[in-house]
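Quick one - inputs below.
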Amino acid sequence: MSDIQSYGIAWPRFRIEDSMLNPSTGRKGVTRAICFSDEDVMTLAFESSINCLAKSQISDLKSQIDGVFFATSSPVFRNRYHASFLADLLNLPQGILAVDFLNSSRSGTDALLLANELVDTGKYRNILVVASDVDFPSIGKETATSFGHAACSVLLSREKGMAKITSAQSFSSSVAEEFSYKKKNIQQDPRFSRDAGFKTNLASALKKFVSTPASFDAVILNSLYARLAGAVFAKAGFEERQFTKDSLSQKIGNTDAVHALLLLMNEMENEKKNILLADYTNGTNFFEIKNHCSLTEKILQNQLPEFELINSYQDYLLLRKAGNFESLKYETKEMFSSEMMYEREKESLIYLEGLKCAGCETVYYLETTRCKKCMGEKFSGVQLSKTGTVYAFTHEHYFPSSFPPITMAVVDLDGGGRITVQQTDTMYPERNKLEIGSRVKLVLRKMIENGSKPDYFWKIVLINNS
Amino acid sequence: MNSKLNDIAIIGIGVTKFGELFHQSYDDLVRDAAMQAVKDAGISLDDIGAAWLSTAFPEIGVFKGRSGMDLCEPLSLYNIPVTRVSNFCASGADAIRNAVNSLRAGECDVALALGVEKLRDRQPQDSIVKMMVEYGHPFLQKGFTAAGTFAVYANRMMKEYGVTREDISSISVKNHFHGAMNEKAHHRKACSIEEVMASPMVSNPLTVMDSCPTTDGAACVIMVRAEDIDRKKHRPVYIKGVGLSISTGWDLPFFDPNHDFLSFEATRNAAKMAYQQAGIINPIEEIDLIEVHDCFSIVELLTYEDLGLCKTGEAKDLIRGKETQLGGKIPVNVSGGLLSCGHPVGATGIRMVVEVANHLRGNAGERQVNNAKRGLTHNIGGPGAIASVIILEN
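Output:
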């Protein structure tokens, strides 16, 4: 048993309508969350984790976290998408247990399940479970796949939190989703994967794990075959009113390894008290969750209506050229970047550990020997904030970008310190106009992608727009 | 600092045509400017005791100018000390400063300072833009072009002082009007304010015509101590003050919470040094013409205040009243400035000195400032970090 101490979610600002992806097969009114060109698995994982940690009540949290579990079904080997790097971005202590859960749509709940077990042993105090998925189907086949981009982070703790996982089990299955290979194509036999696989597994698992079906006021089943599960559940003693509808996939798409966690958070925000979560992919993970506090802030549901629609398939294609800083005016061959520089400068550049002059209290973002204002040499460390006000800006029409112009802004951070960074989420600049005095917040995004190694740095988004 | 300095005199000046000089190599430009100056001074190359070569960006040009050697080779000028100077847009002025100090120290009797830059052999996007996009820190300031680093000043000026886009573009109109009279300028065509404002946007509010072109060119001056002037053959112009100041860094202005983006501290410091050396108290009354570093039109406007030509916030009144146009109270950039002449970075500072020297000699032709006795040149480089001011008298 463990407690859900806090959770955080993140998904891209942009969504595209199914009918835009494919006018003949796409459904009107159904949208999917799509990463902006500088977002990826890591930026979403980072944002959801930051949101999650900020909601925790535990004091001196970072030193109390014993593990980071990173779950994704996105291809990870091309890039630095792994738990250790995420732990590093989050400035968690070195030597922390950082484990990757890869290659399965069930990996999100796999991570949750194992984290729950470890906390239950008493050896681990707090484990951060992060699921993040950014996967693009091949171009032209988008509506045949259920995809959407999102991340969800859950802090599991032995301290009392907002909800308690009272039971966590897994029932494995040897029946694979994919049936046969014909040349290079994978042929699916629905009878096999649905009936022999899904239904059999679920029926056996329910029989084994769930003793009191009537005790649940919310039953969540995350599976592509969820619609077919009614009879199986009925046979196990459940009633139809207990089932929850997956309202998220109509809005942000099916987010794969993240989806079960998002559905759980959604039901917690619906203030369901006894939740059964079942997550099926080649086996089922079962969780019984007692939600014992009514949430004051509906983090997920409040963020759901905030989005920008992508205007055209053309714009969507431009987004998919993630990280290529190409434009009509300029084609970059290579931008300079160095992992050594990142490693050396991360305390200041990424962790925002600034310096405050002991003499005049001027706060500096960049390392300095003497205060520019009073020439004092004594400084104390200060944690800079991630919100601020635009002091000056310009729109750069000639810096290469998929969506020119790039807006550069000089931002005075709340509590001191000044930073100059790019504005992001500006696919449609006219909808995101900055002014001197605009309130903004820092978000971590991709800066440069040389070959396969992305670099991450701060950019800003308008506060009332995000 | 000692304000009574030994006078240094310029005895030879030379400047190439500025523009897309596809028919001339880096070496050709060096020869062109140097031999003009040598001829003007009435000396031989062998009289030169030490030299300074100013090329700011060999790596975005033709990889020439990485050391003083690239001055020696085209001139066959060997067996003397030659130093390459690199200080962004103040490189040319700094070459002169070093030559002046060498003469004062007695290291040599005849000093040559030559600035040259060959940028047009590359596509425009492959030179200055490339420098901002591909080089430099991977994160800090990434997204800026050179124009953008000055455009933020324009936006602050508009917000704080009621400067309008018309005021900024008027600088470009004035300088293009002057440039049409300069046979060595890159662009020799007057333009209207509508044309400036309608040209493609580079970094709001600066348009293409608010920005100087990248240009090939070279300029050269030869200097001696005043006591060594030969009255019979020289028409000397005296260097009365040289100020150079680095007052912030490449990154600092954009990360310094006390920076107001309304002024260049470096210009103020450099001007203070030069004014003190030349004994200038009220610059607008005591100076007859000024060459200002108008890499982008906003920089000229802002510099009026930093040079002390007007009070803070009043620069717009000078341009609105046409006070800085030829015939006005204090003509600025009668050469056409960087906006018309173009900006071969290492050559610009020396080109300005040659321009002012021509006026002080009464040799400036159609654009001559009447009765010019004293002139000033100004450069600013980096993101407003490095400034130089030189005062010249006849």
